[in-house]
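Q: Got a minute? One more chain.
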Amino acid sequence: MDDFIAARSQMALSLGFHIIFSCIGMVMPFFMAVAHFYWLRTGEPVYKNVTKAWSKGVAIFFATGAVSGTVLSFELGLLWPEFMKHAGPIFGMPFSLEGTAFFIEAIALGFFLYGWDRFNKWFHWFTGVIVGVSGLASGILVVAANAWMNSPAGFDFVNGQYLNIDPIQAMFNKAWFSQALHMTIAAFVATGFAVAGVHALMIMRGNNVLFHSKSFKIAAIFGCAAAILQPLSGDISAKDVAERQPAKLAAMEAHFKTEKSASLILGGIPDEEAKEVKYAIKLPGFLSFLAHGDFESEVTGLDKIKPENHPPVATTHYAFQIMVGMGMAMMLISAIYFLALWKKRDWLGSKWLLKLFVFATPLGFIAVEAGWTVTEVGRQPWIIYEVMRTADAVTPMPGIAYSFYLFTAVYASLAMFVAFMLYRQIKMVGTLYDK
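A: Always. Here it is, folded:
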């Protein structure tokens, strides 16, 4: 394996695993805090049991997220030294603040896990809230650093030198809000549907139905509400990408020719040689509306971008279609669920509705992985957009392929460990919290 490909593959593998752990770590504490709040308000033991069960899941993902995040921090320096040499002083602030948020999260989680019957009950609940808020802040700060790679700011690039550095401007670059909003809502969608799907399966099996029904409702409401809101953040992101990264938007939509009243493409197979998309459904004018809020506006195609600056069109397009497809499926399930809560309450205990959530268990994380593929692959060939190419940032150290194989084994082992711990935790629910 070529060292450049190995370095990119290792980074992709690490990010692919870490993003799942971090999403769950960001969102699950809020589920836990809601269940805890219900227990404090109602005194129903089932909510205390749900809180304790979910807190163990939070601890598992906090530990694994810390491990995978630490690995990523080392990889930035080891695999991309030229990038960190120049970028580190510019976008280092969100990483340092993320470290602070991480320490606050760790302290608060320790207080929460070991604070039962030791603290004032509302202070104890508040420590759980702090776990969620600090975890969410960590995620937003990391996304701000990634957004800087898509929208470099806070410096002047003169004759190959990075001058007049402003870390505050770098952190609050033009892309940070749209990316942070989209990623935060995506984390709630993915985690909400995954947790609801697991509890739906347990309800269908007749295992501790009261416990799993309460858990299911909390997770489902979070996940479904986020899924309904996600298209709004998607619209903000699309307009932002159209303005700042027209090549990425063109690759997302396999939009080869610059034109007015551009069609939105659903599905299809891009043919980069023929400059066309085969077997696609086209909605005239909708890409112009998505990009600029006007059905007649001109949308830049790949014909206006230098060939050497084209992102990988097929990969970006397929990933974007997968993300949108998964999102639409979860939106439909969300609409059905909210209709059931509002008007058709007899649907709530039906097996067909529970089966929908079981089916949707992985959809959110598939969408998250596809969305990050769009973000990262769609930025290529740049590691810092229009400033530094990815090929110029990679380490000159030989033998990176062996490192890739080693880390693949490490992450596979970590995934199996997490799966085993979660399986064990889910099975224990039926025996520990059955009263």
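A: The radius of gyration is 23 Å.
Q: Perfect, thanks.
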